[in-house]
From TrEMBL:
Name assigned to this protein: tRNA (guanine-N(1)-)-methyltransferase
Residue positions binding S-adenosyl-L-methionine: 138-143
Catalyses which reaction(s): guanosine(37) in tRNA + S-adenosyl-L-methionine = N(1)-methylguanosine(37) in tRNA + S-adenosyl-L-homocysteine + H(+)
Location of the tRNA methyltransferase TRMD/TRM10-type domain: 1-233
Subcellular location per the Swiss-Prot or TrEMBL entry: Cytoplasm
CDD domains associated with the record: TrmD-like
Gene Ontology biological process terms in this record: methylation
Similarity field: Belongs to the RNA methyltransferase TrmD family.
Keywords: Cytoplasm, Methyltransferase, S-adenosyl-L-methionine, Transferase, tRNA processing
Pfam family, one: tRNA_m1G_MT
Quaternary data: Homodimer.
Function as written in the Swiss-Prot or TrEMBL entry: Specifically methylates guanosine-37 in various tRNAs.
EC number: 2.1.1.228
Length: 271
């Protein structure tokens, strides 16, 4: 996979040289290219922003340097090759595991992390004519710029690529991963030693009984999801759960209503 980032703070992307992403780059699994947007400015101050039309606080990133930068980066690909252009913005669609999987299947991503009040809207409209342009948010909060979201999305996507994780099975039971614990948060995990500061290991994990262990893990996933993300339970079809699941959820205050959907009975939800 090729990944390009256009930014006014190239140094912010240094973490792309370490950990799993850095190793993927060194092995040639991931081709990361970071570009300084100011290279496409033509005044002595390397200006990339200006005041917004209509007034208001803050500054807006100018379309000219972005247009030249994107044209140069896109034209550097093979003839006819079109990248997915990703615009990190708090006003975009939520970044989810489903979207990470979609992006991991694409050969080329171009990120456009903005600063100030964002990029002139005409840039998005221009490139959306011939490219898949995704405006993406990593959460309901506002950051100083889009570089941190680029790091988040890159790591989420890169770990799905073949050859990045040491164990190819590692991501299959992730929270939000399809199959297995699909739609549930991952439960607690343990390793050696068997006792630490008076805390032991759940006996079922020492039993060697794979069926009981799988059931325990699913029960823990149900409990954690009910506690931390009740919206994920409320949005599910009860028919997706087996009888044991439904008993666990009933203990946690969830019941199937008359219209065949989940409803929460007022009660304390325990871990």
């Amino acid at each position: 996979m090729r990944l390009d980032v256009i930014t006014i703070f190239p140094e912010y992307l240094e973490p792309l040289n370490v950990s799993l992403v850095g190793k993927a780059r060194s092995r040639g699994v991931l081709d990361v290219r970071v570009h300084d947007l100011r290279e496409w400015t033509h005044d002595r101050h390397h200006t990339v922003d200006d005041t917004p039309y209509g007034g208001g606080p803050g500054m807006v990133m100018k379309p000219e340097p972005w247009g030249e930068a994107l044209d140069t980066v896109i034209d550097s690909g093979s003839p006819g090759e079109r990248p997915v252009v990703i615009v990190p913005t708090p006003s975009g669609r939520p970044f989810t595991q489903e979207l990470a999987i979609h992006l991991a299947a694409r050969p080329w991503l171009v990120f456009t992390p903005a600063r100030y009040e964002g990029i002139d809207r005409r840039v998005v409209e221009e490139y959306a004519r011939d490219h898949e342009v995704l405006e993406v948010s990593i959460g309901d909060y506002v950051l100083a710029g889009g570089e941190a979201p680029v790091l988040v999305m890159t790591e989420a996507v890169a770990r799905l690529l073949p050859g990045v994780l040491g164990n190819a099975e590692s991501h299959r039971d992730d929270s939000f991963a399809p199959g297995g614990m699909a739609g549930l948060l991952e439960g607690p995990v343990y390793t050696k030693p068997p006792e630490w500061r008076g805390h032991g290991i759940p006996e079922v994990l020492l039993s060697g009984h794979h069926g009981r262990i799988a059931r325990w893990r699913r029960d823990q996933a149900l409990r954690r999801t009910a506690r931390h993300r009740p919206d994920l339970i409320a949005g599910r079809d009860p028919a997706e759960f087996d009888a044991h699941d439904l008993r666990v959820l009933a203990e946690l205050g969830w019941d199937v209503t008359g219209d065949g959907r989940f409803g929460q009975v007022p009660a304390a939800v325990e871990e």
